Amino acid sequence: MDVLQKIDATRMRARDSLARVEDERALEDWRIDFLGRKSETVSVLRSLGELDSDLRRKAGQAANALKSELEEAYRSKQEELAEAKIRKAQTLGRIDVTLPSRPLSSGRLHPITQTERDIVDAFVAQGFSVIEGPEVELDYYNFEALRIPDDHPARELMDTFYVDHPGEGHRRLVLRTHTSPNQIRFMEKNRPPIRIVCPGRIYRNEATDPTHEWMSSQVEVLAVDEGLTLAHLKGTLFEFAKRIFGQDRKIRFRCDFFRFVEPGVDMAIDCFLCGGSGCRTCKKEGWIEILGAGMVHPEILANMGYDPEIYTGFAAGLGIERADMLRRGVDDIRHYYENDLRFLKQF
Amino acid sequence: MRVPLKWLREYVDVSIPLKEVAHRLTMAGLEVTGIERTGSDWENVVVGEVLEVRPHPDADRLRLVTVGDGASRYEVVCGAPNVAKGQKIAYASLGASLIDASTGEPRKLKKAKIRGVASEGMVCSERELGLGGEHEGILVLAADAPIGRPLAEILGDTVLVIDMKPNRADGLSILGVARDIAALTGTSVREPDSTVDARGAPIEARAGAEIADPDLCPRFTLALVEGIEIVPSPSWMQERLLAAGMRPINNVVDITNYVMLELGQPIHAFDYDTIEDHRIIVRRARPHETLVTLDGRQQCFERGELLITDPSGSIAVAGVMGGLATEVTEKTRNVLLEVANFNPVSIRRTAAALKLQSEASRRFAWGVSPELAPIASRRATKLLVEHAGGVAAEGLVDVHPAKSSPATVSLPRKRLPQVLGIDPPETTIVESLVALGFEVKAEPDRFLVRVPYWRRDVQIPDDVVEEVARMIGYDRIPVEPLAGRVPPRVVQPLRELRERLKDWLVDAGMQEVITYPLTSLDVLSRVVARESLERSPPLAVVNPLNVGQERLRTSLRASVLDVVARNLRLGRTRVAIFEAARVYLPTGSALPDEPERIVGAVSGPRLDRWGSPTAESADFFDAKAYVQQIFDRSGVEVSYAATEEYGLLGGRSAELRVGEGAVGVLGQVHPRTAQTFGLADDVYLFEIRLEDLLPHVKPVPHYRALAKFPAVVEDLAVIVSRETAASSLVEEILAHPLASSASVFDEYQGEPIPAGKKSLALSIAYLAPDRTLTDADVKKAREKIVARLTAKFGAERRQ
Fold first, then answer.
1. Is the pTM of this model over 0.80?
2. Which of chain B's ends, N or C, has fewer CB atoms near its CB within 10 Å?
3. What does the DSSP 8-state code read for residue B694?
4. How many CA atoms lie within 13 A of B629 on its CB side?
5. Do the chains contact at A107 and B28, CB–CB below 8 Å?
6. Do A164 and B539 touch (CB under 8 A)?
7. ipTM for the assembly
C-alpha cells in the first residue's frame, strides 16, 4: 500500500470513527487517535522525508489536506456536541418556570415608614431639614403657644390624653395631639430663614373606627422667611402632591380654620383614581382633602421674637396614614397597628 | 349645624343650584358635609283626616281609626294614645316606604292583620318618617293642612349639614349662614323682623336686674310678655325646628329655640310669677350652693359658677340650664325672657363640669356678640306676642356694664400681597368686604375696616386678608415654587442612625412593625422586673381610652413579643420582626426621657427550599446574625459577653459590649416569660439602645489595603474546656502578626472528646504584607500560636 492509499485509508477510518462519537470524552479520544502527536496523520507527515520528491509533494499535499479536513471535522463535531448538549438541557432538562423561588428571608419597612420617608423626601428636596421632637409634650407647646389656650373651643377638635404628673396649666403633660409643637420648639432656638419637616407619632383620645386610630402619624412642615406667601405654600405643597400622588396631580385650596395659622386652608388633590369625574374614594367629589395648612399666625411669629411685618411663614400638617391609605387603597386604618404580617408583608 | 333650606330662604334668595351653593360655602370655610333631603322617600304618604275613632274589639291599647284622604276612607289600626277625631295626620297607604320604629331600618308597608283586624295602611309618627327619634304617638299636622296633599309637599325639605369651625360662632345660626351665602352669590340678606308691638306698661317698674360679676356677664337683658297661653307652636315653626334637629315642645319653649337657631343667641324663659321680687342678680355661686335644674338633677356648685339668682336664691345656671322651680309650665301666664351675654370660658367650664352641654352652652362657649342680645330679645318678644297671645311690656331691662365700640382693623395695603402673593384691585377688596357686612374706608396706604358685630373672630389685619381671600377664591392664588434663602441643613444623627439600622434589618430579612406605646403595668411586668417598675413607675395616662393602655411603656419587649405571639396564632410558621421606637422614662423634671430602642425577635423553624418548615428551629445564632450585621455595617467592634437579665434565659444570653460599655442585649426569652405571651416555642430577642450605640458608629468604614501577596489558609482543631469562649481563642490567634484572619467553622462535644471539653475547628489565614510566606514561616507561626493557646487556655491540638 503506498502512502497515498494509506492516507485515504486513514481518512476512511477517521470518518467512520467520528460518526460514532457521541460525547466529548469520545471526541477527545478520537482527536488523540487522528490528530494527536502519535496519530497516523501526523506520523505520515513526519515520514515524508523518506520519499522521493514527486511523491513527497503529492503525499505532503494529501496529508496536509487530510489534517485540515480532520481538524475541520473535529471542530464541527465539537460544535455539534455542544449544540446537542444545549438542546438536551432545553428538552430533557426543561423546568417548570412557574414553581416557587427558593425562600429568601424577606422583610419590609412598615408601610407608614415607607410613606413617611417619601413625604419627608419631597420636602427635603426643597431644602427642608428633618426635625423630631418629644411625644410626651408640655401643654404649653402642644396648645398654649399655638394659640389654643385652655377652655378654647378649638381644644374640642383634639381629644387629648393627659399624663399623670404634678405640673399644672402650661406645665401639664399631654401626649402630643399633633406634630405642631415642633414649630414652636424650633423657632424658639433659631432665626429665619427656617425650613423644617417634622415627622412623628401623635395621639388622640378618640374611639377607633375604619378611619380613626388613637395613634397615628403626622408630618409637620414649617417655613419662615422674608417674602414667603400663600403662593409659595401652594408651590411647596404642589411639589409634595406630585411626588406622592403622581406627576399629573392638581391641587386645590379652600378656606379652613386652625388657630395657629391665618389664613388657614385645607388642601385637596384631584382624585387620582377617577381623574376628577367622581368615584367612591373621592366620595363623588372629584377632590380628596389631604392636609391642613396656612400662613403662620403673626402673633406666633411675634412671640418668637420675629417681626411679623418683615417675616412671614407657612405651616402644614398632614396625616401619613391617610396618605398611605389613599395611595395603596387600604380601606381600614386599624390594619396599620394590628401588625398582622399578612398585611405588612404586602408592601 | 343643620340648615333647612325652606327656613334659609326666608333670609336669602337661593338662585343657583344647591350643589353650587354647598360648593361655594365649603370653599369659603363653611364645610358642607351633607345635603339631606327629608321626604324624598315618602311615597304614598299623604295628609289624612281622622274621621272616626273606635275601640279595637280585642286590644285595649289599640284603636280602629277611619282615615279619609279626600277620595276614599280607610280602616286603620292605630296604637298611638294621642289619636283623636278631627286631627290632620300623615297617612301612609299600602306600599309606602317607612322607617321601622323599633329597628330604625326602612321597610315597605304591607297589608296586615293586627289582632284580627285588617289595617289598610298606617298613621305615622315622626320616627317612621325619619323626622325625629324619641316621639311618643303620632305626628299631628297643623289644622289647616290640605287633605290628600302628598306629605312631602308640606314637610319635605332639604337640609344643608355644615361642619362649623369654632371661629365662626356667627355660623351657628341660619341667618349667619344666609349672610355668607348672600355674599358668595352676590345678593343680600333679609334680616328677620323684630319690631315689637309693645302695648304693656314699661318694664322698668316690674322687673329689674343687676350684674354682680361683670367679668363673667358683659350684658344682661330682660323682657316681659304677659297673659300668654301655652299651646303648641304654629306648624311652620314646628316643621322648621324638626328639620333643624330640635324637638317642638310648646309655643314658648319653641320660640326661644327658634330664635336661637335663627340668630345664634340663646334665650331663657322664666315663669315671671315664680321670680321673687321680679328681681334678678347675676353672680358667682356661693360655696355649696345648690339648685335643682330642669332635668330634675340637684346641682351643687363648688367652683364659683355663674348663676342667675333672685333674692331668694339661685334660679338658673347662667347660659347652661334653667332651674326647675322657675320653668315655664302649662300654667304659666307671664313670661320673663332672659337674653344675656356670658363669658365663653366660664360657660364652657361650667357646662363641662356639670356635664350639661347643650345647643345654648355651645353657642355661649364659642362666643356670642353682646350686640345681639337686644335684637334677639325683641325678635322673641314679637313672636311671643304673635303666637302665644301675650302683651309685651314696653322696653327692656338692659344692663350692659362692659360696652365696647365696634372693632376697626387697619389693613395696610401691602399686607395683602405680602400674605397672599397677589395684589387684588381695590374695588375687589372693598366689594368683597362690604358684601360680608364690613364697612371699608380706603386710604392711600391702608384700608380702615369696621367689623360687623356678628364677626367677632375678625380682629387683626390677616383676619381681613382671609375674608378677602375666601371671597375671591383660593384658586386665584398662583402656584409659586419655593424661593429665597435655603437654611443650612440641620443634622439629626440619631434619626439617621435609626433609619439606617431599620434598612439593614430589613435587608437581612426582618419585618418592621409599629406598636402602641401605651400598655399596662401587668404586661410590662412580664419583661421588666417588679422592683424596677416600683422604683421608677412608668408614667400613667389620666384618661385612658382602653383597659390595658394606661401606662407609657418603658420597654418595647412586651409589644414585640405580643406581635410574635399574635402572628404565630394567626398560623404563621416563622416570624422575624423588629420595632424601632421610643420608651418613656420618668425623670425628676417635667418631660420624661424618650430614648430610642430597637427590639427584634425571631421564632419558628427554618424553612426548606419550598418555604416549608424544617425540623430545625431558629436559634440564638439566627438572632445573632441580625445583630452582628448591624455592627459590621456601622463599623462598630462588638463583643458578646454572657449575661443574666430579667426575662431572658441565663446561659443563653449575651450583653452587646462596645468599648467599655454595653449597648444592648441578645438572648433567648425565658420560657416562663414566653409563656405569658402564649409563646410555646423558643423565641430569641435582641435590644439595642441607640443613644448608647451612636457615639461608636463610624458612618463611613475606613479602607484597608488589599493583600498584595497570597494568604496561606490552614485549619487548626483544638480541644478546650467547655467554658472557654471561642472568641477568646480567635482573639489570641489574631494577636500573632502573621494571622490576618481566624474564624470558627465547627464546634463539637461528645465522644471521643472528654466530658467537660469541646473541640473547636478554626480556619486561619496567614499573610505577610511584604512577601509570599514560605512553609517554614507558616509552620513557625502555627507552632507559636498553638503554644500560646495551650499556655493560656490549656488547649490541646487535635490531629
1. yes
2. C
3. G
4. 16
5. no
6. yes
7. 0.87
